[in-house]
Amino acid sequence: MAKVVKEFTKGFWEQLPPFKLVLGLCPTLAVTTSAENGAGMGVATTFVLVCSNIIVSLIRKVIPNEVRIASFIVVIASFVVITELMMQAYAYPLYQSLGIFIPLIVVNCIILGRAEAFASKRGVLDSAADGLGIGIGYTIALTVLGAIREIIGSGKIFGHVLFGGFMPLRFLIEPPGAFVALGSMLAIINFISARQKSRR
Amino acid sequence: MDYLLIGISAILVNNILLARFLGNCPFLGVSRKMDTAMGMGMAVIFVITLAGAITWLVQEYILYTYDLEYLQTIFFILVIAALVQLVEIIIRKMSPALYRALGIFLPLITTNCAVLGVAILNIKLGLDFPKAVFFSFTSAVGYTMALLLFAGIRERFELSRIPKPFQGTAIGLVTAGLIALAFSGFVGLI
Q1: B24–chain A Cβ distance below 8 A for any pair
Q2: What is the pLDDT, as a whole number, of residue B134?
Q3: How far apart are CA B130 and CA B45, in angstroms?
Q4: Averaged in consecutive runs of 10 residues, what is the pLDDT profile of chain A (200 residues)?
Q5: Would an 8 Å CB–CB cutoff place B89 in contact with chain A?
Q6: Domain with A87 in it
Q7: Total domains present in chain A
Q8: Min CA distance, A2 vs chain B (Å)?
Q9: DSSP string, B126-171
Q10: Distance (Å) from the C-alpha of residue B35 to the closest C-alpha of chain A?
Q11: What does the pLDDT read at residue A164?
Q12: Most confident listed range (B86-90, B129-133, B162-166)
């Protein structure tokens, strides 16, 4: 049990994507113009990640080694189509604002990376815990980045106006701001982990 | 005239890397040296143009004809994965020199979201066949140009003193932001 908990919690800091695990940058940069979009993308990715991890782990002994990547992609793509259809039915505004990045979850390297590096070698329970932990970490990271960009860039949070009479720094919600914001956040996280290490 | 607009828009204004955020993982991972960036760029141009053409045909003659639009994602990714494998095999047989130059980049391209992204954008923008091919090609040229610009700047990082927390990917992201800022000056062109 302790092992499963460890696989679950490592996604929150030790292997927090996209910072410690520098994967899945495109959706991170593109959809974090607001906290809501970031959270929506995170939840969709988590769903696909957990489901594909479980299935890959279940069929890992059946798949021949040579075609494993192709098989993983088919599994992932199937869950992405399910997510796409579900979002069209139940969360249409979010589906519209995330746009092309919903189908692009297929090529999010975090998902294929976890399938290849973890789920294809480990049991179902471990893989599900790993997927859920990494997914939640990713969701938190996207939401925080989205919130920072939304607060400074448009003076709002989750669509509510935060303070009036403030001239928002529009740069941050435009494409160049995405790179700068993510880069600075990565530097802050590097700084904190360097301090943790030197203290130990 | 249409083609000129598509070209300028795809290369400068809506650069797939800097404005649409597609294909960032190889952008930050591969572009440490000019020659690897060049190899990656050439492989990307080749695969994106070919994939753009083939996925357009798949959409028109299979998905629309049999009402299977909802399977677009699965179809496209399978076509791209198969195409990349095929290209790899053909290049290895036909031209060992080219294979040595592009070979290691080809497997990486399957998961380069720029390929799938451009294929989906072709359909979303409602382009006809020649325009879709042209749009794919110019998008890939824009990608390569950004990749080369970035690699050129990155080679100089090795000589400069970067604050410790920013070393590695962090400074790369900030630099990419500054390049994107420069590119946003092109918005007035169209």
Answers
A1: yes
A2: 94
A3: 16
A4: 80 80 82 89 94 93 85 92 93 90 88 87 90 92 91 81 73 87 90 85
A5: no
A6: 2-199
A7: 1
A8: 33
A9: T--HHHHHHHHHHHHHHHHHHHHHHHHHHHHHTTS---GGGTTHHH
A10: 23
A11: 67
A12: B129-133
Q: What is the ipTM of this complex?
A: 0.85
Q: Where are the alpha helices (DSSP H) in B22-64?
A: 24-30, 34-58
pLDDT at B165: 85
The pTM score is 0.88
Q: What is the DSSP letter of A62?
A: T
Contacts of A20 in chain B (CB under 8 A): none
Structure tokens at A181: 């914001």
The answer to whether B184 contacts A175, with C-beta atoms less than 8 Å apart, is: yes
Contacts of residue B97, defined as CB under 8 A and 6 or more positions apart, other chains included, come to: none
End-to-end CA distance of chain A: 27
SS3 assignment, position A34 = coil
Total residue length of chain A: 200
Tokens of B18: 């800097």
pLDDT band at B31 (very low <50, low <70, confident <90, very high): low
| Residue from the list A175, A180, A191 with its beta carbon closest to the beta carbon of B174 | A180
In angstroms, rounded to a whole number, what is the distance separating the alpha carbons of residues B158 and B136?
34
pLDDT at B103: 63
Give B 56-75 residues with CB within 8 A of chain A: 70-74
